[in-house]
Design a protein that fits this description.
Two copies of one chain form a homodimer. Chain A is of the alpha/beta class and 398 residues long. Helix content of chain A is 41%, strand content 14%. The longest helix of chain A has 21 residues, at 275-295. The relative contact order of chain A is 0.16. The interface between A and B is large, with 80 and 80 residues.
Chain lengths: 398, 398
Amino acid sequence: MTARLSPSEVPAVPPRILLGPGPSTAHPRVLQAMMAPMIGYLDPDFMKILDEVSALLRRVFQTDDSLALAISGTGSAGMEAGINSLLEPGDTVVMCICGFFGGRMADMAERVGANVVTLQSEWGKPFPPDLLEAELSNHERVKLVTIVHAETSTGVLQPLGEVAALAKERDALLMVDAVTSLGGGRVGVDEVGIDYCYSATQKCLACPPGMAPVALGARALDAVRARGQKPTSWYLDLDLIAKYWGPEHVYHHTAPVSNIVGLREALRIVLEEGLDARIERHHRNAMALRAGLEALGLDLVVDARHSLDQITPVWIPDGVDDLEVRQTLLRKYKIEIGRGLGSFAGRVWRIGLMGESSRAENVFAFLSAMEEILPSVGYEVARGAGVAEASKLLAGSA
Amino acid sequence: MTARLSPSEVPAVPPRILLGPGPSTAHPRVLQAMMAPMIGYLDPDFMKILDEVSALLRRVFQTDDSLALAISGTGSAGMEAGINSLLEPGDTVVMCICGFFGGRMADMAERVGANVVTLQSEWGKPFPPDLLEAELSNHERVKLVTIVHAETSTGVLQPLGEVAALAKERDALLMVDAVTSLGGGRVGVDEVGIDYCYSATQKCLACPPGMAPVALGARALDAVRARGQKPTSWYLDLDLIAKYWGPEHVYHHTAPVSNIVGLREALRIVLEEGLDARIERHHRNAMALRAGLEALGLDLVVDARHSLDQITPVWIPDGVDDLEVRQTLLRKYKIEIGRGLGSFAGRVWRIGLMGESSRAENVFAFLSAMEEILPSVGYEVARGAGVAEASKLLAGSA
């Protein structure tokens, strides 16, 4: 039984300029770090690495009070670990939803038998806190309030202050999705007062996908430990996971060594650049992209006050074929952008500038490609206008 | 906020000879493959890679009839995906247990509200099928029978034929844990008739930990799709995962790109060596290790007829300190071996020879280290006896 593949049969991983919703470009130092040899999941030297990742994560989550760790799965595993561990059957959870990923969270909560209340508000705008306030008054006890910080599907940056205050007032735990903001935006776990915050590695951390960094506050951990029955999932049981990452380092499952070593390097890079400088870089490149898109006559989905710097949704002009443009971008220019999800499907493109993908050269590459493609699909643009506008904002930056 | 680390502060990943229960040594070609750049999880070129991984996995699982895929988590995630997706509340599952990992499976099944029947038999011996036969006659309907093929905690290779026949006779699904055997032993999914078989990447596949390859038969997939209520976990819902890996490639979660590309390389390496040759290599090195251990006067836990070639448990001689020996091995010789689990804790050492760790030079390195260490902890051995015995069986091999 042999299967030596000739080179022509081997599909390679082709190069891409990744301007979609993630994965973003992985930092070469992260990929190199992941080449480290294997080591045992309870080896004393590996425990030092775990401790370092935990300490670095606390700085990126901006928390002194929470235990920070990385779950052995993608961002959705971080989402489900929270839902699964914080909710017991019959517990009431109020979900503030104004995008695609709120729906996934509700599906998870229904699976564990929670009493799920979903509050839906308009896509492309922040969630209005008064909707939450009104709903909370309908319930005697709410265990958990959930909200998405950076809505990848709509490109909205959600202000968290009022929502957090309302949850606190009612003694409900607050769970926040920071999948798209961590490492490229200000998450501020302690400042906001987030009890459970989860993210992913393949967006602003410039790491391959495969882990979900989370910050687990004392109130959330108490809630997990006070449960009447175990969470429905063993693999995503935050109590067991916290015991492995905590000082006692109790075996739970074999840790994904390479992913953890890669994440460590990614976090070091974030802090070497400096969190403030990195947030500023994401902002500057997003501003340039938005200016360039507008110079091409395209309409942005989100109001400037609420735009997310990590992903910019833009309306597809009337008569322009969504798929044709995205396929040309991918095939001819090697550029991936995001399609619209849910009610935005076919109506919106989403351009991500996250982590290593948030670079001036990518803004220019994308805008100039669009300047070539759009006229060929019947939408006239002034060639050079987008790039020119963006370059004004990017003078001297990278 | 900067944190440039000086080299002295950076804990490196130190080199190890990994002879524990996994992770084993990762093949350098696998680590190199994982350095490939990122690509989108629905990119047409990435779909080709998924399809190739699936086809290669079918060959290693020895199945034409099952869908093969890799779950985005470690081996335990593969275990829980099966338990979670195949069992509904009230369903009866009969678990054949003669080691540590059966207990974990029972915990998972209880969490989803199944009627869990655990059959325990003696550690260090195969599970006796007549125990299952007697139990099955007590139930009108059994949904699932579970068993571990290669018990890492006890070093026993479980014959599967009779157990499979009993499950089939009663129309129960058969779930098999092949975490330690896949890629180093004969799993034979079609030949045995396994409905759900799961494994892990960090043992005989010589890949870093982080994914759980599984083979999902048609009967198992039918059972998942015929459920009255959704599985309690969304992340581990085999129906949704199968739709991403199947020909329709429906988005579920962001695939862990690097881990999948690494797994592809690992599977190519397995088939280049040839599954038969690889199984023979594992057998030859295990025979040499066992001969060497016996030449040092140590007693093997498992009878020769039922020994697992991937991990060899040996009784710790009276008066010898377990931890002292393992720590000396790790600190002085950079060799990791496994400790005893459960009732074997403190009584047994487990020496793994899996994937790239199953090499003649590792057998010699371990035996010669033990020949130096054992006399220093009060257990006399004839220096050179173990290595000499092993070398007789390893003449001309690697």
